[in-house]
Amino acid sequence: MEMIVCNPQEGVYAATPDYVHAMEVRQPERLLFVSGTMGLDEAGVAGADLDMQLKLIWSNLKRILAEAHMGTGNIVRLTSYLRDAAYVEANQNARLAALGNRRIPTTAIVVETLSDDWLVEIEIIAAA
Question: Which single residue of 47, 76, 108, 121 could bond 53 by disulfide (Cβ 3.0 to 4.6 Å)?
Answer without folding.
Answer: 47
